[in-house]
């Protein structure tokens, strides 16, 4: 749990690579770095298929290298780019962006398991990882943390909850931590009954009350799977056992998380819901720089509410705890099955509550492999995707 406090020299211009630049985290990162051209220069961008947004970003920050999903998108970028830039694609392209020799910081903000390989490669180059891709630690936490230590890389969390805990733990001793408290907004369906959830439409689930995020993470917020994945991530980041990591529903999203110490004191980090705050902290750490968002006024906050999640309405949170405690390949299997089930829901092919049924069935069918290497993790991921797709395709889930 010891915090690595290496920072960047005053006046030094730091190279940044952004994996997932066209997503919500990537866009916020570009807003942060563009405000400090004296301290940051963007060396590489990696995106998927949103070429128009990527072209706009290329014009704004003029990276040396750009990675996209496939050769077709690469040709489109080359044809439309207003400046000369190297364009690569596929997994090799992601790795090239993540390992760019002039990038000191890699912002890992890809969605899902796709972030694992490029993040691992950046770790092996000894870079600072500003981690917004929680699936990297969910699927391969033991391996990733071992590689962090082996290659002397630096891992700074970007998720608002883990950034909050990271900040609260600064200067504290691991032996003095009693419990981590992860706050959750509760998602779009936090006040819905199980009966109401049976009829939840895609638009209902994507109507998050506090944050503007991508579709996948917004669905995960509605099932509380996102919070479950964050529990596993917190376990690896802060070396705290699962029985001392608790989740609490906090609808206002003002307290981003908290640490309880052995003397009964609780330290919490508070801020308005603005992802630029944890992103900037991950980039500037150990310094703090003036922010650009709405000022925080405690007198204007009003009442703040907290209550435990209902496991009967949100069983996915319990599945994540089960997967974390099982260890080995089980978290990778949970993550892969969830990615597949969420995509089936977003395509309109299964109902909302079928997501949790698919997860439970796939987990029940898997015998976890302890201390997996990368090949085993990749196998578990592929097996879980095929199994989850098969269950959904054959109609072996609630309709």
Quick summary of this structure?
With 399 residues, this protein is α/β, with parallel strands linked by helices.
Description:
The protein is of the alpha/beta class and 399 residues long. It has three domains: 14-158, NAD(P)-binding Rossmann-like Domain (Rossmann fold, 3-Layer(aba) Sandwich); 160-274 and 295-311, no CATH class; 327-399, RNA polymerase sigma factor, region 2, helix turn helix motif (Rna Polymerase Sigma Factor, Chain: A, Orthogonal Bundle). Helices cover 44% and strands 15% of the residues. It has helices at residues 24-34, 51-61, 71-80, 90-98, 116-124, 135-151, 160-168, 194-197, 202-205, 215-223, 225-238, 276-284, 315-326, 330-346, 354-365, 374-393, and strands at residues 14-19, 40-46, 65-68, 86-89, 105-108, 128-131, 154-157, 177-184, 245-249, 255-261, 266-270. A hairpin with a 4-residue loop joins strand 10 (255-261) and strand 11. Helix 13 runs parallel beside helix 15. The radius of gyration is 20 Å and the shape is globular.
The helix-and-strand class reads alpha/beta
The shape is globular
Q: Helical proportion?
A: 40-55%
Radius of gyration: 20 Å
What is the CATH homology-level superfamily of the largest domain? NAD(P)-binding Rossmann-like Domain
Spatial strand arrangement across the major sheet: 4-3-2-1-5-6-7
Stretches with pLDDT under 50, minimum 5 residues: none
Task: Chart the SSEs and their pairings.
Blueprint: E1 14-19, H1 24-34, E2 40-46, H2 51-61, E3 65-68, H3 71-80, E4 86-89, H4 90-98, E5 105-108, H5 116-124, E6 128-131, H6 135-151, E7 154-157, H7 160-168, E8 177-184, H8 194-197, H9 202-205, H10 215-223, H11 225-238, E9 245-249, E10 255-261, E11 266-270, H12 276-284, H13 315-326, H14 330-346, H15 354-365, H16 374-393
Parallel strand pairs: 1-2, 1-5, 2-3, 3-4, 5-6, 6-7, 8-9
Antiparallel strand pairs: 8-10, 10-11
Helix pairs in contact: 4-5, 5-6, 6-11, 6-14, 10-14, 11-13, 13-15, 14-15, 14-16, 15-16
């Amino acid at each position: 749990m010891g915090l690595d406090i290496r920072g960047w020299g005053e006046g030094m211009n730091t190279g940044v690579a952004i994996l997932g630049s066209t997503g919500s985290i990537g866009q916020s990162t570009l807003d942060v770095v563009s405000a400090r051209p004296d301290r940051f220069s963007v060396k590489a961008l990696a995106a998927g298929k949103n070429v128009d947004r990527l072209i706009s970003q290329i014009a704004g920050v003029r990276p040396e290298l750009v990675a996209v999903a496939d050769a077709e998108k690469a040709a489109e970028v080359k044809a439309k780019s207003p400046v000369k830039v190297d364009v690569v694609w596929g997994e090799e392209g992601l790795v090239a962006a993540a390992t760019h020799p002039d990038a000191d910081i890699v912002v890992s903000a890809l969605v899902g398991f796709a972030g694992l390989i490029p993040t691992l490669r950046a770790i092996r180059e000894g870079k600072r990882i500003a981690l917004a891709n929680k699936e990297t630690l969910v699927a391969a936490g033991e391996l990733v943390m071992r590689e962090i230590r082996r290659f002397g890389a630096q891992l700074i969390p970007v998720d608002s909850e883990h950034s909050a805990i990271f900040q609260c733990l600064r200067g504290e001793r691991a032996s003095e931590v009693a419990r981590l408290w992860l706050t959750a907004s509760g998602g779009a369906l936090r006040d819905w009954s199980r009966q109401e959830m049976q009829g939840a439409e895609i638009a209902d689930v994507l109507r998050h009350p506090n944050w503007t995020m991508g579709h996948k993470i917004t669905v995960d917020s509605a099932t509380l799977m996102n919070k479950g994945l964050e529990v596993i991530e917190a376990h690896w980041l802060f070396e705290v056992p699962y029985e001392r990591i608790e989740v609490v529903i906090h609808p206002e999203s003002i307290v981003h998380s908290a640490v309880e110490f052995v003397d009964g004191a609780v330290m919490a980090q508070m801020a308005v819901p603005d992802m630029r705050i944890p992103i900037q902290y991950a980039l500037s750490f150990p310094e703090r720089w003036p922010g650009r968002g709405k000022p925080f006024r405690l007198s204007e906050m009003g009442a703040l509410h907290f209550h435990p999640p209902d496991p009967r309405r949100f069983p996915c949170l319990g599945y994540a705890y089960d997967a974390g405690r099982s260890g080995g390949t089980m978290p990778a299997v949970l993550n892969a099955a969830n990615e597949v089930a969420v995509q089936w829901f977003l395509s309109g092919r299964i109902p909302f509550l079928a997501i949790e049924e698919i997860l439970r069935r796939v987990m029940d069918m898997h015998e976890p492999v302890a201390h997996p290497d990368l090949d085993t993790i990749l196998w578990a991921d592929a097996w879980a995707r095929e199994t989850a797709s098969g269950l959904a395709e054959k109609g072996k889930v609630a309709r």
